[in-house]
Batch of 2 targets.
Target 1
Amino acid sequence: MKPPPFGYSRPESVSEAVSTLASLGPDGKVLAGGQSLLPLLSMRLAAPHHLVDINRLRELSYVRVDDSHVHVGALARHADVLADLPARTAQPLLGQALRLVAHATIRNRGTTVGSIVHADPSGEMTAVLALLDGTVRVVGAAGERDVPAGDFFLGPLESSVQPGELAVRASFPTLPSRAGTAFVEVARRNGDYAVCGVGALVELGDDGEVVRARCAYLSVAATPLVLDLSGSMGADGDATAAAAAARSHVEPEADIHASAEYRRHLAGVLTERALRLAHHAARSRAAHSRTAARPR
Amino acid sequence: MTQEQMFDVRLEVNGATCDVRVPARRLLSDCLRHDLRLTGTHVGCEHGVCGACTVLVDGRAIRSCLMLAVSADGCAITSVEGLTNDDGTLSPVQQAFVDCHGLQCGFCTPGFLTTITAGLRDNPDPTEDEAREMIGGNLCRCTGYQNILKAVLRAAEIAADRAIPGAPSEPNVAQSGGEQ
């Protein structure tokens, strides 16, 4: 249960990190919070030749909100994002999901960007990025690129970050004024990997009708699965049909924790629960924005 | 790799500056136990599940088995050995574990003490649910969690009492642990 030997660098700047990673190519592996990587090393499931420790890159430890996005730097710990009130207000789904990411002790060290790059289909933040159509900025020797969530997750534990590249930030669109979100999951204990989890985003039109209803799913597919359920959501927030649609769409696999059939059942139950909560949140947010907009 | 490269690491452990020379793969937990002979930090699962190795790094509770010693260079670390008050008396959390019978075999205790110490700093007056959540990432296989839960709430009381200047120190045996 000890990691195998590896080389180690600890760059002091993003440019130094990128040039180190470029020179290492496929031999290099980025170490951020290490809350997924270190267990993999200790269990000898991974044996990278060289770790590039980015924990000195203070320039990446930010959480910033602008008009359209919440930007999370690669060294922002889950706990930092969760504690950031402007970020949670601009996009409530961040706080709703981060509460469910492992235990507080893990959130103190693990980074949000790191868990997205890790691309675990049971990770909450991968689902959040996918549901919100967020982007990840990746820097390499050739320059930087912004990868949309839809292109970012290639398979279980496989993202589109290439050898020699560093993911420097994730950007999550802020929540529109007539929209609401929710994140619910079932796990054996709080903080454990979810047997199934669902994030929901509901957007209302001017007359309070549902114009958009989307759900993202944990632990039921190889990559974060997003379903557009706009057509099957009732105007009053009734999500019974949407839950049935979700049950017929997901194709979960069985493992030691749950049968495929149980996961499918949970996907339906949690879809209904998440959509109802998100619809409720959208209604109160829309009412609030209407009050706020009224001339005095 | 014929000879592993070694790295000089400076840690401030429980207030004392410590210089160690370790390979990159040395876990912080092993550095504390083997290089610094601070065996109060216990190692259970070594992959971040049990919480026994929890220490405070720059004031935040983290799993020392999920951090490389070399990554901790320059950090201030508090292990269970550093929790006692400056005069050697027990901290509120330690005293509460005594009062409430919060430990039996003691293997998991260092991780609980450090986790709760940080948890009460963030939330000095937790509800029972919040106390339960606070210890949710730590495993105990013999005491049972009920007395540990009582100890969290008792520790909050002791800390609040001690914060009042001139208040009498807490009794040796608290009522909350009485129904054994």
Note: The helical segments of chain B are 28-35, 92-99, 109-122, 128-134, 145-162.
Target 2
Amino acid sequence: MSNSTILRSINLQKVYRAGTLETPALRGVDFELHKREFTAVAGPSGSGKSTLLHLLGGLDRPTGGEIYLQDTPLAGLTKDELAHLRLTQIGFVFQAYNLIPVLTVLENTAFVLELQGIVRSERIARAKKILSELGIAEYANQFPNRISGGQQQRVAVARAVVSEPSIVLADEPTANLDTATSLDLIDLMRRLNEERGATFFFATHDNRLLDRVSRLVTLIDGEIADDRTQ
Amino acid sequence: MKAALRHLKRHKGRSLLTLLAVLIPVYTLVFMFGFASANLQDMFETATRLESGHFQVRGVSEHETVSTLPLIDDTSDVLSALDSTDGVEWHTVRLDVPALASVGDRSETILVQGVEPDTVARITPIETLIVDGEYLTSGENGAVLGQGLADLLDVRVGGEIVLLGVHPDAAMGVIKVPVVGIYEAPDESMERSLIQVDLSSARSLVRRPTAATAILCMVEDVAGPWDVDKIDAVTAALTAQLPDGFEIVDWRELAPLVLTYMNIMRPVLFIFAASFFVLGALVVANTLYLSVMERTRELGLILALGASRARVMRMILIEAGLITAAGATYGALLGVVLMWIVEAFGGIPLPTRFAEMFRSLGLSGEIHLSVRAGDVVISAAIMAGVALLAALIPAWRAARFEPVEAMRYVE
């Protein structure tokens, strides 16, 4: 593993089982992600994009293979250790239901910092700063149901980067957004990648976004069909 | 904490249901304890104050008698022992003598009670029940008798009664006493069979100038049967000082009805309380479980972001703690306030038949409520504690969510 490698998977496999029925989702994925990359994993529905993100993010466990975050093998970690690793090393943006409805935009943004045990004054200051950077400071005291879907995803991105994690994993963050908003969100993520050096790895099946990434991994039927830097 | 409050506010209906699940049992229990406690206190006070005292010192009988207390020749040693025992608030000497009361050609078998009028008022209701004439005066020859007996003997205030004392430990004595007062008692048998005279007159009936049958005692700071430890402590200390030939008989023997009532009420109250607690806890567990299931995706998100399972459990338990604390507090307050209101209106009047029955037991004809602060706090605390224990089930369930599955959950 080179010094710039953040995340690595070796022969990663995932099979979903329902009774006697087995559905392979990943069939041996070898993959490395490097610092400061802005990488998308694309592919048709059911190709294993979300599964790959969940496994890499420690949200689910693989059926076979290995994952290393920095130098830590995820396989040996308990649930609580995985939770701590997610809290300290990974930022998440999900497709939908990203925000906690009873917390304001500011509180949602600072939530991860609160879980990390950072004192209130500092987490509020950091949350306000990132909200300003992302141009949504004016919504700081709004509850999620009072802002648009695009704004909600911006808040989710703010929350994902506020703790300056090693990597941000985003699972189809634009799936529920219109084209203009989707492009805005990707541009925003790209800006954070360039200005803050944040490493992004996100899944998408929207081809309109793909010319904005620095590296594109194509997944088909649970296998990497293409992996190119552009 | 803020998030927990917002969650509770967001689901007002469910929060209200949870609140009521705690509030109703607490306020019902406070009310019920108020009723039972007041009845018990009333019964205890009536029994000990009007008849027996908290305990009595009596002579030990050499031969068994069915209804007559053995005669004590001299009370001075006992009185000295009482005076030197800490915690004895008050005592009075009494001499009970079975007797025949006659007026003209009419006679009735009665009990003459020789009392010290100056001190006995504390322990007898008769002075307050006088309807004609007046109560006894210390050292003066006179008798007070019930209206029923007065009618039977056809005597009124100012008339005279001849009493023939027939105590088995003494020679028969005869005295003539003027009727100075007539009382009316709720207990008909008492009214027809009890005459009170000054202690010196009763002593003439047994021809012994220092005789008595019992020294009735009250102990300091005893508000009800829950303070029996204080009585036990005093009787234990006194036992060590009493000369031979005397025994202590406490309220348990003197007022067995109170003990029976206590023995019945305790398990009944316990069963009621336990049932209320369990029902309340089930409702709390159920509503919180529904709340957790409704918030599956949110809890999945929180877990996905890196919250520990302990943290998620704590979140649910904080919500449960807030709502149960509020329910228990409001329940206790409501119970106490309702009791105050009821008491402000003079208690709850019982139907006549029950009122008469209660009065015959020495109780009030109304339901009076009073509850000790300790009972209120304990009821509220136990309910809140049980509800919190019940909340562990949904909290544990929430903590066991798998983040990915929980975030995919569709209601």
Note: The longest strand of chain A covers residues 5-18.
